[in-house]
Every structure is written in C-alpha cells, then in structure tokens.
Amino acid sequence: MTEELTEAVQAEPVPEEHQKSFLRDLLEIVLLALVIYIVIIFLVQTVHVMGQSMEPTLQNDDFLIASKISYRLHAPQRGDIVVFRPSTDPAHDYIKRIIGIPGDHLRIVNAQVFINGRQLKEAYLNEAWTSFNTWNNGEEQVVPPDSYFVMGDNRNHSTDSRYLGYQKKDQFLGKAWVRVWPLTDIRVFSSGIPYAS
Predict the structure, then answer these.
(1) Count of the separate structural domains present in the chain
(2) Which residue in the list 53, 70, 147, 161 is annotated as catalytic?
(3) Can you say how many angstroms the Cα of residue 167 is from the centroid of all Cα atoms in its chain?
(4) CATH number, domain with residue 144
(5) Which residue in 68, 70, 96, 147 is the catalytic one?
(6) 96 counts as catalytic
(7) Residue 170: which domain range?
(8) Are 110 and 133 in contact (CB under 8 A)?
(9) 8 band by pLDDT with thresholds 50, 70 and 90
(10) Is position 10 within any domain?
(11) Quick check: 62 pLDDT over 60?
(12) Is 144 contained in some domain?
C-alpha cells in the first residue's frame, strides 16, 4: 500500500503554472545579472587607491567607485577627483584633483594657487606645501583647450601636472564618485573649489 502511494505521488506531473513561474523567475535573474554587468562594465569602475599622493582626502588602500560616463554627459569640473592614464606613463592609472580647466589663467607661487587672478582656498591640504611650490617661475599660464591641470592633495608627495604637464580629457578614465572602503569612512565626492576671501 505504501509503495503504491509513493508511485502515485511521483507520477503526478508538475503543474504548468509552476513551470511558467520558474521560467519567469529565471528570466528575471538573468536580466538583472545582465543589467548589473552592463552597469559595472560601461558606467562605473572600482578604483583601488595606492600611495599617498591624495592624502588626506584619500588614503592608501581606499576603494572608490568612479563614474565612467560622467564626462560623456558634461565637461570635467574644477575640484573633481579624476582617474586618468597620462601619456607619459600609459601603463599606470593616476588619481588627482582637477585644479585648472581649459581657458583658466593659472599661476602657482609660494604654495598658493591662483585661478583667473583669484587665490583658491584649498582646505583639503593637510600640511605645509614646500616641495615644488612655485610652478613655471610663478608666471601665469593659460590652460590650453581640452587640457586640464591636475594635482594631488598631498603636494609634497605627488607626481602631477607640475611634472607630467597638462592632461587631456580623453586620458580621463572616470570621475571618483564615492569611497566605499573603509566602511567607517564612506564619502561621496563633490566638485568645486572655493576662492579665498
């Protein structure tokens, strides 16, 4: 009697609506995975910070998410933290802050940065800037079209436009959007640098 009941239970077909539900769930999972894949590959990238050139804003071993699409939608802005690959070192990615944008009149003298005749208020600097703190003999230069002047926040320990020269927009890989690690220091980055009063 028990054997007959077992066989009867096993012989019952799976209802058609259960099969449709399973297929629908499977399709939703595949579509969701595809959307996530597209977002990761085409819209964002993860960035592992290595080195001290952006301290104190970024620390060695921080993990960031950078937007790959931002600069397709709008021009880079002063104050953006940008990931780029310089033409002088195409094997490595760098991360710096945009200081000068195309058309800016830029002057750096005695650790003070002037844009269009006005001094920037760089609250993100954490120590006295003593290394290469005057650029181009303190003379003003105009940032060329489609070019950007970038510097690390740790000016004494940063290989940036003072050494590498201007960077082109097509060298930019992404705009740093948010720090996701360490979890105790999650932060969304914004654009802009105020002028000193």
Answers:
(1) 1
(2) 53
(3) 16
(4) 2.10.109.10
(5) 96
(6) yes
(7) 42-182
(8) yes
(9) very low
(10) no
(11) yes
(12) yes
